[in-house]
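#onboarding

Welcome to the new folks! Below is a worked example of what a typical request in this channel looks like: someone posts a single protein sequence, and someone else replies with the predicted structure as tokens. Don't worry about understanding the tokens yet, we'll cover that in week two.

Example request:
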Amino acid sequence: MTITTCIFDAYGTLFDVNAAARQVSGEPGQERLAELWPNLAQDWRRKQLEYSWLRTIAGRFIDFWEITQDSLDWAMDAHGLHDAALRARLLAVYKELPAYPEVPAMLKALKDAGKTVAILSNGSKAMLQAAVRSAGIGEYLDDVISVDEVHLYKPHMRVYDLVTDLFDVPQTEMMFVSSNGWDTAGAAGYGFATVWVNRAGDPPDRLWATPHRILRDLTTIPELA
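Example response:
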């Protein structure tokens, strides 16, 4: 069946989550960060995901921006970075993460082909609006869906319900794209056609479902739709 609706995860899929640490590490006076920014970025992202899962399991939802701050605090502590100005700078840049280079042309191609295009993200509405605006991709999106509406984080099935609640098309006409293997497992188990954008070349997760396609970036997504 033809794909009519393309749903994208945001962080790590459309937006480069490592960009904040990488960018700030090149600024004057950030020699210490320059030495360790890849590890800081990795720990920041890992804790961001872990905290979202643990809060969903425990029924203790907080806004994803709060989780993002808590995760950065843990990562900075772990690397001995006790600098309030650096913390503020990293968070300011994170609010305006750049899109990966191939994203604008890929989204434009989907829209030119008549596809419905949307984001489904763990990010808060405010975070997503800021990122979409700074990346300049708003004109290619029909909607931006946040887990704020259900106070649960992916891969809880109620989050994927948000897509089918909004778009009145069969699941078989929807393609879900994420850089997170666990996210594509959740979406594949839910019934979506899925694409895992495996930028890091990681092995597949051993979970309840597997992605239907695996790509190294988003360039060829319009060919699949």
